[in-house]
Amino acid sequence: MLQGLPLILLLVGAVAFIIIATAKLDLHAFLALLIAAYLTGLIAGLDPAEAATLVTDGFGGILGYIGIVIIAGTIIGTCLERSGAAIVIAETILDYVGEEHTTEVMAITGSFVSIPVFCDSGFVILSGLNRSLAERSGLSLSTLGVALAGGLYVTHVFVPPTPGPIAAAGIIGADIGLVMLAGIIVSAPIVFVAAIWADRVASNYHIDPNPEMTIDEIKDEYGSMPSRAASFAPLLIPIALIAIGSIAAYPEAENPELITGTLQRWLLFLGDPAVALLIGAFIAFAIVPDFDSSVTDEWVSDGIKNAAVILAVTGAGGAFGEVLGALPLQSFITDTLGGLGIGLLAAFIIAAAMKSALGSSTVAILTTASLVAPLLASLGLNTELGRVFAVLAIGAGSMTVSHANDSYFWIITEFSDMETATAYQAWTLATLVLGVSSIIWIVILQNAAGLVF
Q1: What is the pLDDT of residue 212?
Q2: Alpha carbon 369 to chain centroid distance?
Q3: Is residue 228 within a helix (H) or strand (E), and if so which, with residue range?
Q4: Residue 227 gets which letter from DSSP?
Q5: Do 59 and 33 meet the contact criterion of CB atoms below 8 Å apart?
Q6: What is the per-residue pLDDT for 254?
Q7: How far from chain centre, in Å, is Cα 220?
Q8: Does residue 129 contact residue 413 with C-beta atoms inside 8 Å?
Q9: Count of C-beta atoms within a 10 Å radius of residue 330
Q10: Can the peptide bond before residue 234 be classed as cis, meaning omega within 30 degrees of 0?
Q11: The model's pTM
């Protein structure tokens, strides 16, 4: 079996193959990751039967861990989109924050909507509202476009049940509840970084909003709108349940008298991410003003279809990671990087390179998680909190940077009426700032957690 430097060169070659196959040859990431998994194992010297078993075990293992969570999350997102709840969330935040802070409102709104909805879908859903608010507040469409895009982007890479961080948590073995809580803590200030950038930089590029509809007309298009409480419930209740479940997992060791017996078992059950997200999905059904069988049939079918590609790519990423875990990489990494204390930075840099090359943040997260998972001990991240921070560092790298090979870049450009050159200056540079700001904040939090725990 290959050892040392030849094995590292094989790994580099596998990554290069994934990049070329997806970016240049237009091969789907699902197939590229599976081919890379098989070829890496065979070339490294694994027994062919063992390589085949590792791929299938890795594929099934990761989907068994997070498959239901991803599907339930996409169903929630579909209901929020089609019921008009996303618009209600935006209006609620606007009322509480105030129209004088419209930029912050759009960034915060994006951060909420993107938790169950893909950021590109969220931008399309809210683009009409974005234009109307820009017209009403007298702001350039570029200002609110970048603020909304940034808010959507941040929680997209940090906060489950968005598929990327969930998949990374599954591959790396991090607790999803802790990833969710830590992701929210990381996201909160970075969302405001996006708003500040939009106000101070994106605002220099004036774009007339030219709204096709007023806010009232947008609401009329949706028909009867759900209440504010109902609109937020499918997001906040699963998050609360998962957080409570994570807390309930600790008293057995730390405070045996606090939560024990039947109560603890039920809290752990309700706080299981799959259970919590399924509960959120049924809550989402309840927000639909005109509930009928099309919701439980057609909408759920559409949500499952939307999840299918993510499930396939996630499973392939798990297969690739399983093969890498069977190779003797750790000793070489320990000898070369182990004493440098750059574990989080290494994860960030790899994810940033993958993002810049591949365009897709989700694929960058999955590929990097597969690469990093077998190296956690060597990078000094093989603890419960270390794995959580590894997921967050990968998420930060997967934002850095969004440019012409990223479909989200073109959605922002198209729906914000930006010239390509403007988008590079207003948006691509923004993603560089967001990514670097995020990893700095994550390193600070890791050091603070090390002092406390």
Answers
A1: 65
A2: 13
A3: helix 228-248
A4: P
A5: no
A6: 47
A7: 32
A8: no
A9: 16
A10: no
A11: 0.77
Amino acid in the structure at residue 328: P
In the chain, what is the greatest distance between 2 CA atoms, to the nearest angstrom? 66
- Nearest by Cα to 87 from 216, 187, 278: 216
HSE-CB of 406 using CA atoms within 13 angstroms: 29
Spatial contact of 85 and 126, defined as CB atoms under 8 Å apart:
no
- Cα separations (Å) of 49 from 45, 320, 340, 447? 11, 15, 37, 44
What would the two tokens of residue 417 be? 């009426």
CA pair distance 17, 132, nearest whole angstrom: 45
Contacting residues for 58 by C-beta, under 8 A, at least 6 apart: 37, 315, 318, 319, 320, 321, 322, 323
CA 237 from chain centre, in angstroms, equals: 19
Give the CA count within 13 Å in the CB-facing half-sphere of 322.
24
Cα distances from 295 to residues 13, 79, 82, 85, 110, in angstroms, run 46, 8, 10, 14, 24
Among residues 112, 40, 38, 104, which one has the least CA distance to residue 76? 112
Q: Is 38 left (phi over 0), alpha (psi -120 to 50) or beta?
A: alpha
| Sequence-distant (≥ 6) Cβ neighbours of residue 177 within 8 angstroms | 242, 243, 245, 246, 249, 271, 273
In angstroms, the CA 436 to CA 296 distance is 42
In the Cβ-directed half-sphere of 18, how many Cα atoms lie within 13 Å? 32
Residue 161 contacts residue 67 (beta carbons within 8 Å): no
CA distances for 35 relative to 116, 155, 357, angstroms = 30, 31, 19
Amino acid at 343: G
Which residue blocks in 287-329 are alpha helix, DSSP H? Answer: 293-294, 300-325
Residue whose tokens read 């309930």: 248
- Cα-flanking dihedrals φ and ψ of residue 256, to 5°? -60, -25
Which contacts of 292-298 are long-range, i.e. CB under 8 A and separated by 24 or more positions? Answer: 295/79
**Could you list the mean pLDDT of each consecutive 10-residue stretch along the chain, which spans 453 residues?**
81 83 81 91 92 92 80 81 80 81 91 82 80 86 95 94 86 90 95 96 90 69 81 87 77 50 84 88 81 72 81 82 77 54 82 80 86 84 92 95 81 86 91 96 88 53
**CA 171 → CA 221, 346, 352, distances in Å?**
42, 17, 18
Residue showing tokens 């098989």: 38
Encoded amino acid at 48, one letter: P
How many angstroms separate the CA atoms of 153 and 434, rounded? Answer: 9
Among all chains, which residue has been given the structure tokens 């079996």? Answer: 1
